Amino acid sequence: MALQLVALSFVLVLVSLLAAEGQKEPDPTVQGAPRETATCRRPQWDWRLWLAPDQDNYKENEEVMLSCPKGFQPSFTRVKCVREVQSTSFGTHVYREVWDGKLSGGGWVRIQSYVACVATCRRPQWDWRLWLAPDQDNYKENEEVMLSCPKGFQPSFTRVKCVREVQSTSFGTHVYREVWDGKLSGGGWVRIQSYVACVATCRRPQWGSRLQLAPDQDNYKENEEVMLSCPEGFQPSFTHIKCVREVQSISYGKPEYREVWHGRDSGGGWVRIRSNVACVEVLQVVPGTLEVSSTSIKLNWTCRLPDACQNMQATCRAMPSSPPCEAEEVKGEEMLHGQEGTFTCPPLQPFTDYSVTISLPLGTILFSWLVRTEGTVPDKPEELWLDPSTGSLRWKALPSCQGEIIGYQLNITTRSTQDGAFLETERLRLSSSVTEHPLPEYGPGSSYAVTMQGLTAAGAGAASLWEFQSNSSHTPHPLDISCRSVRDISPSQGTAVLLLHPIAHPNEAAREHQLIVAATHNGTGVEGACVGEPQPFNASQQPGAYMAAVLNLTTSTDFVLGDGTRGQGYHNAALRLGSDYTALLRLVHRSQQVEKFTCVCYSFSVVAGQPPGSWRGTVIGVVVLLAIFLLSAGILWLVLSRKRKSLPSKAKEDN
Predict the structure, then answer these.
(1) Which of 122, 162, 457, 580 is deepest in the core (most CB within 10 A)?
(2) Burial letters 557-585, b for 16+ CB under 10 A, else e
């Protein structure tokens, strides 16, 4: 029992000692524990600063007021000290002093830089209607301030700033004064010498979009003179205008104004502008009178402002060009008089750019037009040759001097030297970029006639002709036409019998053959009939080339020409006495870019007194003569043979 009492007494003594130890040194980190109030030392800022209260130390969060001498203002007018944890060492916080400044809106912000007394200017005592932004009683030096006015008014300057300049020096100290600078529209600053007021203004007039105003602004002061101008060739109704504000009505004893514009007339006086001011075309070219051909330019003109059309001059000049299409210089100048007239450029070159200008003496251009004359057909090609190694035609591309070259028309007529009655013409439309083309069936024994024309939008130009043989590309060879003969010509019946053979190629299916008749033996006419479009037969006129029949030939056949039969698109008309004829059996093949005409010609004449069937007598006579010749030759051979046999026998007898 005694032992238990001793142990209890020891525990009570130990608790008392621990409690006493805790009361001696309270833990500053424990919430609610009493500690000494934190303070901050007086900030070392601008020496001119006045602090209220004026102390060496300030309590944490104690608000302090700052002020400066007259003409200056502190960066912040109210500050307070705050102690913030800088670091922690051995479990103990290390604090540092920082200062916060009060913003104009009431919030607090950490002061990051030196607080100083900044030179300031008092709010300028200008027009009471001026609105300043920011709206303050004092402004820092060089602080930009925006000015504005009520609707319908405008300040002399929209941006200003305060500048402190030395007014004098007293006892070695500068005495400053406040001055204000205003910002110009170009961005520069100028000293404000007078009272800044809200001046009555007018909004920019909403007239033609082409009008150019100087100065170019959104608002103009009352009675401010504004110059108007237009793009070249146009003139405004008024060249000088100004805004005037006139009383429209009176409401509650106050006048209500409206904007009106006055324009200066030709006499120098000012008149009220009643309608929109627009850019008027001084000189108008009458619509629909512009005439452009390949060699001329013509236009009719009218002056809408006679006072502005004195001593006008019209010129026509060629624009710069490059070889080989060099434009010749044109001296086309003419003085224009009156209020209307016609101007025509002198003879010009086709497909060439020209500048047509009508101007005033000081160089003001009233009308300018860049135009290209119409194109015409091109010159004929001059350089074409045969490449014997490839069998291809080659040529030099035509320049686009007369018009844009859009292609070439190439006609190749092929004849066989073994059969003069046969001709084949290939008519091709080639692109302007093509400068070579293979000859058809190139090989020995063929003759060619090639014609080539350049093509523009105006049509085909003059054709160049080359003739040559396949085995001699350098020596021209005339292409002789020797048509086949015709049998059984009957002048009395106006008929002739033609022996026709299909002319389809072996690897092609038989196609429709056309029989064309031309009243000519001329070789050129024959070629023209082969590639031309035959006209319907007209008995009242001298017949040209006409379609006599359409045949589906598969084998050789006799055809009676002139028997009078008719069909769809053809007429086998009777032959006329005393006429020369050429009949053409033609096969036509057409594709998108190529037309191919293959013809065999028959030539004959219908002569009075020519007996029908005379060819049979001729043939019989030839056969009889041939038989007599063969019989005579046989008899002669027989006689000579017997004579040779008798000579050896006689020699033996003599021996």
Answers:
(1) 162
(2) eebbbbeeeeeeebbbbebeeeeebbbbb
